[in-house]
């Protein structure tokens, strides 16, 4: 299972994933680290973009409202998305089936405690770098601050690389055992994958306040759904109808106010 190709793939994913992980909080913040972007990128590197798109969309929906604001350390969705995609692509080189995709997404949930502990430790260690830089005075202050900044970036990069090196082999071993499981288990993973969008939508609705749910947006969905059932419209037309009806409702509300 762990031949030279797999070892090289794990090494490549670890290095690329470490660079992508810097985008979370350490540098850039260009949203490349979001699962909807990071997972397809990992899938493209490993030859299975479809797996990356599915896994990234699912995990983005689940963790879209987890923001690293203040002292809150959210789940590292980047590591989870890239790990799940890499395990799916390396386990099924010809294209991961739905059962494997579902298992890899479920497996990524198990990485959350480890990624949160690692993020918390690196943040705490970086805070000591800042204290040391503040202690310097005179001409050494600027150099100490620059050195602390670069050291902190490398610490975040190294943290992600170590996580990938540890999690990817464990994930591949778990996926190999899953492929040997009974058919009923694999069918359950397919059902899990199909029902997961409902879970993600429920999490988003639960975290939003009731006042944040735009009634005109909901009206657009309902109107588009009814028209689709009557006229059998294409999915693109349903989306356009949803946007148009919601936009008209917002314009009407603005005109009244």
Question: What does the model show?
Answer:
The protein has 257 residues and is mostly helical. The protein has 2 domains: 4-208, no CATH class; 214-257, no CATH class. It is 78% helix and 0% strand. It has helices spanning 4-21, 35-46, 49-63, 77-91, 98-109, 112-135, 140-179, 183-207, 215-231, 235-256.
- Sketch the topology as an H/E string, one letter per element: HHHHHHHHHH
User: Which of globular, elongated, flat, extended, rod-shaped describes the shape?
Assistant: flat
Mean pLDDT: 79
| Count of helical regions | 10
- Domains, number: 2
Number of strands: 0
- Gyration radius over CA: 22 Å
List low-confidence stretches.
Answer: 209-213
End-to-end distance, in Å? 65 Å
Which band does the percent of strand residues land in?
A: under 5%
Biggest pleated sheet:
none
Structural class by helix and strand composition: mainly alpha
* Helix content, binned percent: over 70%
Summarize the structure in short:
By secondary structure, the protein is mainly alpha-helical. The protein has helices spanning 4-21, 35-46, 49-63, 77-91, 98-109, 112-135, 140-179, 183-207, 215-231, 235-256.
